[in-house]
Design a protein that fits this description.
InterPro entries: Spore_coat_CotE. Pfam families: CotE (PF10628). This is Spore coat protein E. The structure is a single chain. The strands form two sheets. A four-stranded antiparallel beta sheet has the order 5-1-7-6, with no helix packed on it. Strands 2-3-4 form a three-stranded antiparallel beta sheet, with no helix packed on it. The protein has a domain at about 20-145. It is an all-beta fold. It has strands at about 10-30, 40-55, 60-75, 80-95, 95-100, 110-125, 130-150. It has no helices and seven strands.
C-alpha cells in the first residue's frame, strides 16, 4: 500500500501472533493384564495426566502419559483390588491454520487438553485381558514473530484530536477490503 491523499501511511511491523493452530479428538483402546483372574470390572478412571508439546515438521506433537486405575473384583466377586497401569502416548495434531511467514527460531508451542483423557468403556476380553477405551482431545497453538501491515498517522498519536476515520479518508486504501480472503498469506518477506 502507498500513501493516500489524507496523509495516512502503511507500515510493516514485526509482532508476536498466533501463527498456527489445530485440534484433534481421538479414541484409543488399551489392553491391561490384571494381576489376578478377575470376576468383574467395578470401575476404571484416569489420573496423573501429564503432557508436553513440540513442533515436528508441519504438526504439533503432544507427548504424554497417564495412569489407568482399574477397580475389579476377583475370587468369585468376594474380593476387590485396584490395578494401576501407566500409559505413554504420542499424539500428532495437524495444524488447520499455519502462517508460513513466521520467523524461524521464534516459535512457542502450547497445548491444552480440551477433553482430558477419559475412560468411556472397560470390558473383559475372552483371554482375561481388560480392554479400556479412552477418549481425549487437544487444542494446540503456535506463537511466533510475523509481519503485519498497519495504517499509521504521520502526525503521531497526539494528532488524533477531533479526527476520526469514517472511510472517506481512506479512499483507495479501503477499496476491496470486503473481498479480501482472511486466510490469504503472502510469502514475500523481502521488504
Amino acid at each position: 500500500m502507498s500513501n493516500t491523499n489524507s496523509g495516512m501511511q502503511c507500515r510493516q511491523i514485526i509482532t508476536k501472533a498466533v501463527t498456527g493452530r489445530g485440534s484433534k479428538f481421538s479414541q484409543t483402546t488399551h489392553s491391561i493384564q490384571p494381576p489376578d483372574h478377575i470376576s468383574s470390572i467395578l470401575g476404571a478412571w484416569i489420573i496423573n495426566h501429564k503432557y508436553d508439546a513440540n513442533r515436528v515438521g508441519d504438526v504439533i506433537e503432544v507427548t504424554g502419559s497417564y495412569d489407568i486405575n482399574l477397580w475389579f473384583s476377583f475370587n468369585r466377586n468376594t474380593k476387590t483390588e485396584v490395578a494401576n497401569h501407566t500409559v505413554r502416548y504420542v499424539e500428532q495434531v495437524p495444524l488447520s491454520y499455519y502462517d508460513s511467514n513466521v520467523r524461524e527460531g521464534t516459535m512457542e508451542v502450547s497445548a491444552v487438553a480440551t477433553q482430558p483423557p477419559n475412560c468411556i468403556e472397560a470390558t473383559i476380553a475372552e483371554d482375561g485381558e481388560v480392554l479400556v477405551r479412552v477418549e481425549r482431545e487437544f487444542y494446540v497453538e503456535m506463537v511466533g514473530e510475523t509481519k503485519v501491515c498497519v495504517l499509521v498517522n504521520p502526525g503521531g498519536c497526539d494528532d488524533w484530536d477531533d479526527k476520526g476515520i469514517d472511510g472517506s479518508e481512506l479512499e483507495g486504501v479501503s477499496d476491496g477490503f470486503e473481498d479480501l480472503d482472511p486466510d490469504l498469506v503472502i510469502d514475500d518477506l523481502s521488504d
